[in-house]
Amino acid sequence: MPLYHNDDQQMLADAAQQFIADKGSVAHLREFRDKNCKDGFGHDLWREFGEMGFNGILVSEEEGGLGLGHQEAGIILKEIGRNLTPSPFLTTAIAGIEALNAGSKNLREKYVPGILAGETVLSLAIEEHSKHRPDHIAMSAARSGNGFKLNGAKKFVIHGGSSDMVIVAARTAGGVNDREGITLFAVDKDVAGMEINAVRLVDSAVAAHINFNDVEITADAVIGEVDQGADVLDRLLRAGRVGAAAEMVGVGQGAMDITVNYIKERKQFGRVIGEFQGLQHRMSHLYSEMQIADAAVLKAQQLLDEGSEKAELMISVAKAKVGKATNLSVREGVQMHGGVGMTDEYDIGLYMKRDRALSEFFGDASYHVQRVAQIYGY
Amino acid sequence: MSDLENFRAETRAWLEANCPAEMRLPIKGEDDMCWGGRNFKFKNDAQKLWLDTMAQRGWTVPDWPKEYGGGGLNPAETKILKQEMASLKCRSPLSSFGIWMLGPALLHFGTEEQKKHYLPQIARGEIRWCQGYSEPGSGSDLVSLQTYGEDKGDHWVVNGQKVWTSYADKADWIFCLVRTDKNDKYKGISFLLFDMESEGVSTKPIKLISGNSPFCETFFDDVKVPKDQIVGELNRGWDVAKYLLGHEREMISGGGLSADMPSIGAAFAEVAELDPILRAEFAAFDVETLAFRAMSEKFMDELKAGKGHPAQPNMMKYAGTELNKKRHELIMAAGGSDALEWESEASNHGAKPRGWLRTKANSIEGGTSEIMLNVISKRILDLPGA
Ligand SMILES: Cc1cc2nc3c(=O)[nH]c(=O)nc-3n(C[C@H](O)[C@H](O)[C@H](O)COP(=O)(O)OP(=O)(O)OC[C@H]3O[C@@H](n4cnc5c(N)ncnc54)[C@H](O)[C@@H]3O)c2cc1C
Ligand SMILES: Cc1cc2nc3c(=O)[nH]c(=O)nc-3n(C[C@H](O)[C@H](O)[C@H](O)COP(=O)(O)OP(=O)(O)OC[C@H]3O[C@@H](n4cnc5c(N)ncnc54)[C@H](O)[C@@H]3O)c2cc1C
């Protein structure tokens, strides 16, 4: 398959670009931030995402979705990134759906229609540390009657306070670092014993620290098999990582575009500053880094869609590369804006904040560089 | 099986049956490659056999039309052939400025007679070409070149000096930029082809920091060039030169990276274990390499579908050459004192340090990195005054 978007994908990209720029622009982010919305995103827009069919990209056609893949999901995510749209799309329609796709028909019947309609929001309770360490799960799920009793704490649960269901990775057997013994659960909001402390993050998203104190859930909340959740978790992580990488490409390109436009307008020393070679060369270098990151992400999506065994490696390459490139883009962006880059009025700072959050989500560049070395066996 | 799957299977079987074992060993350096030409001395029989076998099939230039000595493959088939050659570690049968640079320019700008005459010779590796662009005063600012061709009716008489002419002393013919109108800086240059054995051509090697001297100063003293050896229109050689530079940049950018290259960290796993900082650098480099390779693939696919931005090769050249330099820095660091040996048998006559030093030219030859960044600023980002 050639490594560019085919005609159908290009049509989707055009539609998504237009729609998200109209409805989910940076102005939309500012609106939700400034009214101090407790969810950090707009439910109306989420429903419109549903109407556009975006939420069903990874859902099979039999179940009412579009039956498409990660390349198409990435198209939407890139536009979300470019516009800094606050949205539960990545947690719900990408990572969440991927986990549900590995679960029972019952679970899918329970949640998927709401997701397709933009009524239901999912969040992911995986992390227990401030750095991404999904192979280190201590939270316990002890058998209790017909079901399980959850105890432990999770961090960095994006939209954790406003989701309808939380996907929780817990341990039904084994020690903290064991692969065997992990189980994934679909936990509905408002169950007794789930203590949610929502916190606003630097990028205005709202995440939660969640304490589970003897939370009782039934056996049909298990996603996949008991003790064998690591495979489902991997599937969720692959989708989440490549999805976060796609969103970051959008953030990096968006930041680059506004900076290029800015330096074409701003005059100092009697010239537009874009004429200075000191800035031009850095801008061109940045362009080249973003192009490479973009291709790496597309390659990872393609391999994942093909079910290739190389996907794992390339996903980490993609998240690592885009982590570095987008970080460069926002740093150069703020610097080249000069003083106004430090003001809230200019958008460039918002890009810098979103980059910081997204780079931690599903593992930062160092985590994924390290993983590349491990996959290569050194 | 689809046609392409059939093609892949047949290609693989054919390569397995026809590519000699010696031509599946890693290439040790420029000296180890097959350059062809009138005076080329093959390293061994396998090298000659491999060239002849591939040329017979048109696979030294798989995507050129058959009537010009090519294989007539479509883009998808060409990609498959490259992939299969990489996975079986088959060496490229022929390294040639004719293939990388002149051929594409002739295909685009040449007359039918020129194509029929020159292209099959290039495909079979019979004529070795060199590139006469740079002059002592004209490097990055190439259009300032002074070598002059005076119109004498049915021929030109060329006088001047070129510099950095790679392999001029080994080449059979030269493709050369010559001023044919002194009044117009851009529209006064023509693109001429001529035999290096013509009277009045002389060369003098330049020794490099690697100890090798692959290139020369080249002098033209009343050299007669027949009129039918011009490519493209009179005084419009700059168009041909730029087109060719696009291909040259593409070629240099891929240098050493596009092949099925193993992980640098895996290759130096023992060092990685000793030194965590180097290990991290290896891993970061492996990330860069795989990401660059994806970009390279994307660019090639887009190019073949006519979707690419025409200035993208500049970006590839910039990123690819900087990466290749970094790779050789890491190879030197990983090698430690062993990588310092300059002459011993064990070090293959200093292949590592010489290779490392050679790569420093990557970001200079075919246009410097700074010039690439200028072009991106101007033609892609549309920055003012660039
Ligand atoms: C937090 C903060 C506190 C400040 N406090 C004070 C204060 O107390 N008093 C005060 O007077 N000022 C203050 N300033 C203003 C500060 O001095 C200016 O922001 C600074 O001089 C840069 O000018 P500028 O913002 O207009 O950027 P610009 O001059 O517009 O520069 C924009 C970008 O272009 C680049 N650029 C400009 N010219 C060239 C060139 N010739 N070649 C290459 N690149 C170029 C710049 O480096 C920058 O990256 C403050 C600024 C900030 C952010
Ligand atoms: C190994 C090797 C093989 C070569 N083979 C050939 C060949 O076969 N045929 C041939 O014709 N030529 C060949 N060249 C020449 C090559 O094309 C030139 O060296 C190259 O174009 C740079 O020109 P220069 O060396 O005159 O550098 P200069 O133009 O003098 O540049 C010096 C420095 O100034 C920088 N600079 C110049 N202009 C600008 C600008 N506008 N903005 C910012 N920075 C600038 C450059 O980037 C460089 O860092 C070869 C060179 C090498 C090293």
TrEMBL record, chain A:
Is Transmembrane among this UniProt entry's keywords? no
Q: Where is the Acyl-CoA oxidase/dehydrogenase middle domain?
A: 141-215
**Residue stretches making up the Acyl-CoA dehydrogenase/oxidase C-terminal domain:** 228-374
Show the GO MF annotations. acyl-CoA dehydrogenase activity; flavin adenine dinucleotide binding
Q: Which residues form the Acyl-CoA dehydrogenase/oxidase N-terminal domain?
A: 7-119
Its needed co-factors are: FAD
Record key words, sorted: FAD, Flavoprotein, Oxidoreductase
Q: Where is the signal peptide?
A: none
The keyword Repeat is annotated on this UniProt entry? no
Which domain of life does this protein belong to? Bacteria
Tell me its family.
Answer: Belongs to the acyl-CoA dehydrogenase family.
Per its record, how is this protein called by name?
A: Acyl-CoA dehydrogenase
* Source organism per UniProt: Sphingorhabdus lutea
UniProtKB/TrEMBL annotation, chain B:
Q: Which Pfam families match?
A: Acyl-CoA_dh_1 (PF00441), Acyl-CoA_dh_M (PF02770), Acyl-CoA_dh_N (PF02771)
- What keyword terms does UniProt attach to this protein? FAD, Flavoprotein, Oxidoreductase
Superkingdom of the organism of origin: Bacteria
Which Gene Ontology MF annotations are present?
A: flavin adenine dinucleotide binding; oxidoreductase activity, acting on the CH-CH group of donors
Task: Using the record's annotation, list all stretches that form the Acyl-CoA oxidase/dehydrogenase middle domain.
Answer: 130-223
Cofactors required: FAD
What are the annotated GO cellular component locations?
Answer: plasma membrane
Q: In this protein, which residues make up the domain named Acyl-CoA dehydrogenase/oxidase C-terminal?
A: 235-381
Q: Which residues form the Acyl-CoA dehydrogenase/oxidase N-terminal domain?
A: 49-126
Q: Which family does it belong to?
A: Belongs to the acyl-CoA dehydrogenase family.
- Cross-referenced PANTHER family, in alphabetical order? ACYL-COA DEHYDROGENASE, ACYL-COA DEHYDROGENASE FADE29
Q: What is this protein called?
A: Acyl-CoA dehydrogenase
